[in-house]
Amino acid sequence: MTFRARHLLGIEPLAPDEITALIDRADTYAGMARRGEAPAPVLQGQTQINMFFENSTRTQASFEIAGKRLGAQVMNMGVASSSVKKGETLIDTAMTLNAMRPDLLVVRHPSSGAVDLLAEKVTCAVLNAGDGRHEHPTQALLDALTIRRAKGRLHRLTIAICGDIAHSRVARSNILLLGKLENRLRLVGPPTLMPPGAKDWGVEVYDDMTEGLRDADVVMMLRLQKERMDGGFIPSEREYFHRYGLDAGKLAAAKDDAIVMHPGPMNRGVEIDGTIADDINRSVIQEQVEMGVAVRMAAMDLLAANMREANTPRGVLT
C-alpha cells in the first residue's frame, strides 16, 4: 500500500496509486463499521484540531467522529469566538496553533489557497476540509468510494456532474480524481454556471440535462452555491428545477442501474426531486455520508503514519 503525502490539501498532487491506497483503507474501515468492529486506536495519544471558518454539519461531524473512533483527542475550535474575529491573521493563528503541537489539523476556509498557506506554517499534518472554490479532497474520495462500492469498479464509467460547476470545489476535486482513474466525465449545467474553459479539462460539456445524462452510470448533483454568487446566475429556482433539477423524467435518460449522488446539503425541489433523493434503489446519498467517516479515518490514519515515519530516526524500528 502506497501513500506518500504529508498533507491532504487536494486531489491534484495525488498519484492514482495514492488515491487507490486511501480508498482501500477507507473501504476496510467502512466494512468494520458495518460489522460493528472497533478499529485499532492508531491515533491514541494524538491531538486533532478541527478549525472551520465556514459553517459545516456533515464534514465537521464526520471528521470529529473519525478522529474519536481512532482514539485521537479531538478539539473543535470555535472560530466565531477565536482571536480571528479580533483581527488576528491566518498566519498568526497558524503559529499559535503550531506552538500547541497538534498532530492533525483539519481546516475549512472560505478563501482558496488558505489551507495550503497554513500547511506551510505548521509542523503537523493538515487536511483540507474545503477551501473556497479550490478543492474538497475528502468529499471526492468518499464519492469515489461510494461509486466503487455501488458499481464494483472505479474506472471506465460515464459520470455526469450536474449543476453549479462554477462555484463548486466538490466538482473540481471530483473532476481531478475521477479523471485520474480513466472515467468519462460530463459536466452538465447552464452556461452561467459553467467555468470558462471547462471544455479544455478533458471533459464533455452539456447545457441540456437529457443529453448530458444519456447512458450515464453515475449522476452526481451539486448544490447551488448561493453564498458564492454575486449576480443573477439563474432566472429563478423554479425555472432552474424545470431545466436542471433531477426528476424521474430526466433520470430516465441515464442507464437503468445508474446511481444518484449529492454531496449535501440538498435543496429539494431545486437541484433534485425529493422522491429521487429518497429512492433506495437509485440514491446513494446516505451511503455518501456513511463513507465520509471511513474516508476521513483512512486519511488521518495514513497521514499520521507518514508523520511518525518521518520523525523516526534512522535505524529505529517502530
Report what the structure shows.
- The chain is α/β, with parallel strands linked by helices and 318 residues long.
- The protein has 11 helices and 9 strands.
- It has helices at residues 16-35, 58-69, 90-99, 114-121, 137-151, 169-180, 209-213, 237-244, 248-251, 274-277, 285-310; strands at 47-52, 73-77, 104-109, 125-131, 158-162, 184-188, 204-206, 218-221, 259-261.
- Strands 7-6-5-8-9 form a 5-stranded parallel sheet. A 4-stranded parallel sheet has the order 2-1-3-4, with helices on both faces.
- Helix 1 (16-35) crosses helix 11.
- The two termini are 17 Å apart.
Strand content: 5-15%
Number of strands: 9
The helix-and-strand class reads alpha/beta
Kindly report the spatial arrangement of strands forming the biggest sheet: 7-6-5-8-9
